[in-house]
Amino acid sequence: MELFNPALEKNTTFVHPAYFIISGFTGIPDIKYYYVFLFFVYIVSVLGNTTVMTVICLDHNLRTPKYIAVFNMAFVDLIGSSALVPKVLDIFFLDHFYIPYNDCLTFMFFCYTCLSMQSFNLVSLSYDRMIAIIFPLHYQVKVTHRFMFSLIIHVVARCGVDWFRRVPSSRRIQRLLTTVLLQTVHTPKSKVPLFILLN
């Protein structure tokens, strides 16, 4: 159990805030136009990634290992943009600046995992192209469907374990949150600490 949370075997108490106040983009003139533009970019991203995935599923000629990686990259991009953009629009465009601690960790999990998976997907696509260029006659033997699926499963497992191993149970982050918690000013009515995540 020490792999995931080393503090479980010791008598350690972690204090975390109830919520964060995010005030990152306030005070910038005409910032609402940026959010409208971001919404249209999100719609184009969703439509484009859905189209790529649909074409790969429907066309039997595209059922090669390379297009399995392209499908996975479109899927991860769709999940990542769907995790990031609606929450950013909710926070800043609709003025919901409070985000609970658990929601913030969930939001960070999806953003971090999808960003890491996109990088690893580019690595797997570059490996596919490298094998196709260096060993063109051995390409069908070296890069198979089974190899590409195992590579994708390894990427997903690596990114998920990396998150659960480093981010939430990190002593450094917990110490930072505890230090910030002890240095904040409590509001007189609710006695809830206020945090400013972005300035």
Automatic annotation (TrEMBL):
It is a multi-pass membrane protein. Residues 48-153 form the G-protein coupled receptors family 1 profile domain. GO terms for molecular function: G protein-coupled receptor activity; olfactory receptor activity. This is G-protein coupled receptors family 1 profile domain-containing protein. Keywords: Membrane, Olfaction, Sensory transduction, Transducer, Transmembrane, Transmembrane helix. GO terms for cellular component: plasma membrane. The chain crosses the membrane at residues 33-58, 67-85. Its main location: membrane. InterPro entries: GPCR_Rhodpsn, GPCR_Rhodpsn_7TM, Olfact_rcpt, OR51/52/56-like. It is found in: Membrane.
